[in-house]
Amino acid sequence: MLKGRVSGTLALLFGFALWLTPALVESAGAPAGETSTAALQRQLEALKRESDDQRKQFDRQMEQQRKLIDALQHRLDQIQSQNQQAVTATQQQAKQTNEQLQTLQQQVKVGPSPASLTDLLENYYGEHRFVVTGGAATTFSYDRKRSNNTFGLTFEPIFLFRPATWLLFEAEPSFDLPASGGTDVGLEYAQADIFVNDNLQIVAGKFLLPFGDFPEDLHPFWINEFVSRPLPYRDTGDGGLVPFSDLGVQVRGGYQWGRTGQVADYALWTGNGPAYDNSLPTTVVGQTFMDNNIKTQTHSLAYGARLRVYPLPVSAEMGDLELGVSTYDGKWQDGLWFTSWGLSGFYLKGNLELRGEYMATHRQMPLLDGSNAADNRQGWYVQGGYQLAGLSLLRSLEPYISRAKLLARYSGQNQRAYVVDEIPTAPAGDGTDVSPEQFSPHGREVALGLDYWLTPQILWKLEYDIEMPESGGTLVSFGPTGTATYAPAYSSVDHAVISEFAIDF
Amino acid sequence: MRHRKFVLLLICVLALSMFPLRSRAATESKAQDRALFRRGAKLWPIYCARCHQAIPGAAYSPAQWDTIMLHMRARASLTGEDATAIMKFLRAR
Hints:
The structure holds 2 protein chains of 2 kinds.
Chain A: H1 2-28, H2 30-110, H3 114-125, E1 130-143, E2 148-164, E3 167-177, E4 184-197, E5 200-208, H4 214-218, E6 245-256, E7 263-271, E8 302-310, E9 320-333, E10 336-349, E11 352-363, E12 375-387, H5 398-401, E13 404-415, E14 417-419, E15 444-455, E16 458-467, E17 474-477, E18 485-488, E19 494-504
Parallel strand pairs in A: 14-17
Antiparallel strand pairs in A: 1-2, 1-19, 2-3, 3-4, 4-5, 5-6, 6-7, 7-8, 8-9, 9-10, 10-11, 11-12, 12-13, 13-15, 15-16, 16-19, 17-18
Chain B: H1 2-49, H2 62-76, H3 80-92
Helix pairs in contact in B: 1-3, 2-3
């Protein structure tokens, strides 16, 4: 039974094996193998395609990532650059701010300069067609012999108005507080200047007389280096051997005839002419001019001329030299002439200054006493000055010493008489001191001076005068009765000390 | 038409010719300014010192100098060229 069962199982297995054999043979045999390979190949190709797709996708992703990285890198570079620029700008701004702060601190420390102030004022006031300048001074006089010890005050503003580049109006009133009391008010000049061309000007009005150098150029107290005036220019008021002003018309100008600095200037004028003090009971030799000859005294006008030549060119560096000649002539009374002529000159080189003038006048007198004696006068002055600059002594004090100037002047005049009633007895702002001896007909004076410029426009002057008149001449006095009496002139020596603090503004 | 072209050409020639003229004029003006300044710098201490201390330019504003120099030109009988030169120097300060 068991044997049968085993035999049956074996037979079953055998049959199953036979059933499986064709399938196995088919899978390993030719027709069946071809089918399997193609499938495999298809699978392989599919795998390849899939692999290629994945590789391409990977490459695309890599490319995108690379671009993204590049973009990020570029952006990073931009940000870093902007950051660097910001840092640099901040540093520069900080530097500029620091510099501006330092500049402001320095300006605050130094304070405003005159130039900046004037710029501010200029911006505020505009074109400055109208300008006020001029000067003010206070004077102190001391004369032991005459027991004079007093102050005086002078104020002379100058008003300038420039309506056009070719036209200027100018006027200078004067206010003096003399020691004698009261206030003397005068008009130095008031004129219109018309500039026709480079070499011609027309002046009309009351003008300072272009005679020599002193009346027109040197007599303002902020220009005159002495407190007093030279004797020929020291009569009462503004006058001396010639009047200081006239009312009329001038033509004048300058002309360059050579190299730079080689010029000549001229002035020709006509005016009302000289007028003498009419407060005296009668006309006498030696009487002074009137301050204001504002109306013609005669039926004719006066004429004058001045020519000055500067022969040294600037490039020669030989200094500056002036040679001048002047004349002023006119009738002071109908039929009676006043004539005058003068020479003037100066030389400047470095710290040295020399100047001088000589003048002579002739006045025809009426036949009062039958003598027909003429009123002849001569006057002169020579003046030297040395600025104490460039000295090798005391170099540490050089800035202060260089502002000082030593001066000496010798002046004199000759005339036949002086009128005592016209001689001032008290010092005044016009440069007269307190010594009557200076008004002697044969007056002589030595003046020694020390000037000190605090600035070019602020001047302190100290002057020592020695009056030493020569004998001769007469003093005429009318007194309360009006009768002329004659006495010998002063001939004694007197000394005076005068000082002045003058400001040119 | 020819006339219009001629006018256009003329305008172009004139416009082109202006450039060298203008630049030369500007150069000459600057050169003249410098020459005037140098002249003024030389004359200022000499002419002023004939009568008074030489006042520095900073003492007054440039516009004030215009008026004051006119006054000084009249007072000192300066030539117009010398007065302009000194004013140029003083205004520059």
